[in-house]
Design a protein that fits this description.
The protein is α+β, with helices and mostly antiparallel strands. Among the domains are: 86 residues, Herpes Virus-1; 53 residues, 30s Ribosomal Protein S14, Chain N; 117 residues, no CATH class; 87 residues, Immunoglobulin-like; 146 residues, Sandwich (Jelly Rolls). It has 9 helices and 38 strands. Strands 25, 26, 28, 33, 34, 35, 36 and 38 form an 8-stranded antiparallel β-sheet that branches. Strands 27-37-29-30-31-32 form a 6-stranded antiparallel β-sheet, with no helix packed on it. Strands 3-9-10-4 form a 4-stranded antiparallel β-sheet, with no helix packed on it. Strand 34 and strand 35 form a beta hairpin. Helix 7 runs antiparallel to helix 8. 23% of the residues are buried. Interacts with SNAP25. GO terms for molecular function: ubiquitin protein ligase activity; zinc ion binding.
């Protein structure tokens, strides 16, 4: 019974209904509360003015909500007639039930009549505080609304069933215990409210006040009021109009208000509607039973969710801590490499400072000595040493040229941390075992006709199955290490084609792809086997070359427009394996000294190859050759080049050596040892030289072990 109490309380005053009336919207109000929320409307909206204008309207017309706004969920607590400037705006309040209501537009005049009999302001409007529908009252005022006698009876039975002490009905906040009841007013009062609202003087002095318990009994014993017609107050309801859905009296029928309507006996319709309500309650009862069982299930889920949440949070924290630990370890390793690079740069710069300091001291000493010699006045003695001094001065000047005054080390660090894959992985870090309503994408299909390899690069293409209905948000491409090892991700994104560079030469790779969306990942596609090129083929790279380099023959042939040496690199880099290539001298004029070898990607491009610490080279003229690295010349070897000569370069990264050949004969000893890292083929030349790169298929005539290209590691 306690759950029903909210149905028995007025939305305005929050107390049990007292003399409830039924609004056309089927909601109920206390008769006194209905009077309190009346609002006076403009004259043009009155029923009389509408009748005068000839518009056929009923006595209770709902206002056009576009013209009048009495309530809004988004307003600031004020209601007003939007279409009439003369209408006052009054702050809206909240009833004890939380329903927003409007106070009266003006205080009701003092009267001792009941709310139903008291006069109603002209052109009054009432707004239902529950559905907010508004209507204008006719001349009958509140008497035009039927009284809800059934609701009164339910409230009486409910109050009789409650054993708790009766409370005062007029206390605004916490109701106090009632001390008296007025039989005429039918209201329970506490002492303060009785003195304030029911003083023993005037007409109220004749009212009979009884104890609350006696008042409850008198309420129970009082005869049930018979419902009368709203249009004919002396007539009882005897029939029921099916079209209007309301009880009517015989006088309403005689006046012809329902002449064309279907009218049935009141008792028959009463039994029929009771039967319909009982049937509807059976279905609602089943739903209520299911709701109670569902609530039990939900309450048991609350505890389970809390336990699972604690366990899952602990697991998540442990996994994230493990990732943070791994990142800290990797951070320490990378910092160690940075410190190593830092020490290396400082060593190179300090060595150059020491070297230049000694050389500058020697040059300064020579200059001072020459100045003193010039001061001598002995011609014969001066001429005896002048030629030697002039040669020494020119030689010393030449030693300061060709990059001697260029720093051997840049201030920038060669290391560049690529953290984008890790950041992307962190952004994609999510729960992959979430049970979602949408399925995972279908398995992608590799398009074999579009997959290929070129040199040490592989291009792969894939697509979703034609009949797939689940969209993929992206794809993950995986390759193994070329030696049958574990797969690793090489691409994550939305594209359906990817080219992977920097693979190992003469190696077999396995590739596979899978799709993913918010739900999860699809199964892997079928594995595709890819074979990279056996021989390292490359062309010269215009993008990284000096601007004076001239390219031809699909970038296999190069020359230069300057008399100074300029550097050009090959497009392919090597970090593992054994690689051999040849360069043919197409043009050789005026005995220049071109250089051949390997270099880092950031080698200096405007000096001879080998002048800085980023290149390892052999430079050669028409008679002899030298090895050079970091401007250090070693191993002078007889034997030069002419037009048509062939220079061979053997880079053995397995043994970490670099060897040179001229016309298939090894030139000098092994040029460099302990070479490791990523190297690019490189040459330097001026305008007197033109050469072409080639890749011989047979190496049996070279006089050294058979070469087998092995992979270069992925950058």
């Amino acid at each position: 019974m306690e759950e029903m109490e909210e149905e028995l309380k007025c939305p305005v005053c929050g107390s049990f209904y007292r003399e409830p009336i039924i609004l056309p919207c089927s909601h109920n109000l206390c008769q006194a509360c209905a009077r309190n929320i009346l609002v006076q409307t403009p004259e043009s909206e009155s029923p009389q003015s509408r009748r005068a204008s000839g518009s056929g309207v009923s006595d209770y017309d709902y206002l056009d909500l576009d013209k009048m706004s009495l309530y809004s969920e988004a307003d600031s607590g004020y209601g007003s007639y939007g279409g009439f400037a003369s209408a006052p705006t009054t702050p809206c309040q909240k009833s004890p039930n939380g329903v927003r209501v409007f106070p009266p537009a003006m205080p009701p005049p003092p009267t001792h009549l009941s709310p139903a009999l008291a006069p109603v302001p002209r052109n009054s409007c009432i707004t239902c505080p529950q559905c907010h529908r508004s209507l204008i009252l006719d001349d009958r005022g509140l008497r035009g609304f039927p009284k809800n006698r059934v609701l009164e009876g339910v409230i009486d039975r409910y109050q009789q069933s409650k054993a708790a002490a009766l409370k005062c009905q007029l206390c605004e906040k916490a109701p106090k215990e009632a001390t008296v009841m007025c039989e005429q007013c039918d209201v329970f009062y506490c002492d303060p409210c009785r003195l304030r609202c029911h003083p023993p003087r005037g007409p109220l002095a004749k009212h009979r006040l009884v104890p609350p318990a006696q008042g409850r009994v008198s309420r129970r014993l009082s005869p049930r009021k018979v419902s009368t017609c709203t249009d004919h107050e002396l007539e009882n309801h005897s029939m029921y109009c099916v079209q209007c859905k309301m009880p009517v009296c015989y006088q309403c029928l005689e006046e012809g208000k329902h002449s064309s309507h279907e009218v049935k006996a009141l008792g028959a319709m009463w039994k029929l509607h009771k039967s319909q309500l009982s049937q509807a309650l059976n279905g609602l009862s089943d739903r209520a039973k299911e709701a109670k069982e569902f609530l039990v299930q939900l309450r048991s889920m609350v505890q389970q969710i809390q336990e699972n949440s604690v366990e899952f949070e602990a697991c998540l924290v442990a996994q994230c801590d493990a990732l943070i630990d791994a990142l800290n370890r990797r951070k320490a390793q990378l910092l160690a490499r940075v410190n190593k690079e830092h020490e290396h740069k400082l060593k190179v710069v300090r060595d150059q400072i020491s070297h230049c300091t000694v050389k500058l001291r020697q040059t300064t000493g020579l200059m001072e000595y020459c100045l003193e010699v010039i001061k001598e006045n002995d011609p014969s003695g001066f001429l005896q040493i002048s030629d030697a001094l002039i040669r020494r001065v020119h030689l010393t000047e030449d030693q300061w040229g060709k990059g001697t005054l260029t720093p051997r080390m840049t201030t920038d660090f060669d290391l560049s941390l690529d953290n984008s894959p890790l950041l992307q992985s962190i952004h994609q870090l999510d729960f992959v075992q979430v049970k979602a309503s949408s399925p995972v994408p279908a398995t992608p299909i590799l398009q074999l006709e579009e997959c290929c390899t070129h040199n040490n690069s592989a291009t792969l293409s894939w697509k979703q199955p034609p009949l797939s209905t689940v969209a993929a948000e992206g794809y993950i491409l995986e390759l193994d290490d070329g030696s049958g090892g574990q797969f690793r991700e090489v691409y994550v994104g939305k594209e359906t084609m990817c080219t992977v560079d920097g693979l190992h030469f003469n190696s077999t790779y396995n590739a596979r792809v899978k799709a993913f969306n918010k739900t999860g990942v699809s199964p892997y596609s079928k594995t595709l086997v890819l074979q990279t090129s056996e021989v390292a083929w490359f062309a010269f790279d215009p993008g990284s070359a000096h601007s004076d380099i001239i390219f031809s023959n699909d970038n296999l042939t190069v020359t230069c427009s300057s008399y100074d040496d300029r550097v050009v690199l090959g497009k392919t880099g090597f970090s593992k394996g054994v690689h051999y290539w040849e360069l043919t001298i197409d043009r050789y004029d005026n005995h220049p000294d071109p250089a051949f070898g390997v270099a880092r990607i950031d080698v200096m491009k405007d000096v001879m190859l080998g002048k800085d610490d980023k290149a390892w080279a052999m430079y050669v003229d028409n008679n002899r050759s030298w090895f050079m690295h970091n401007n250090s010349h070693t191993n002078r070897t007889e034997g030069g080049i002419t037009k048509g000569a062939t220079i061979g370069v053997l880079l053995d990264l397995n043994r970490k050596t670099l060897t040179f050949f001229i016309n298939n004969e090894q030139q000098g000893p092994i040029a460099f040892e302990n070479v490791e890292g990523l190297f690019f083929p490189a040459v330097s030349l001026n305008r007197n030289v033109q050469l072409t790169v080639s890749f011989p298929r047979s190496r049996s005539t070279l006089g050294f072990r058979s070469l087998t290209s092995t992979p270069a590691e992925l950058p």
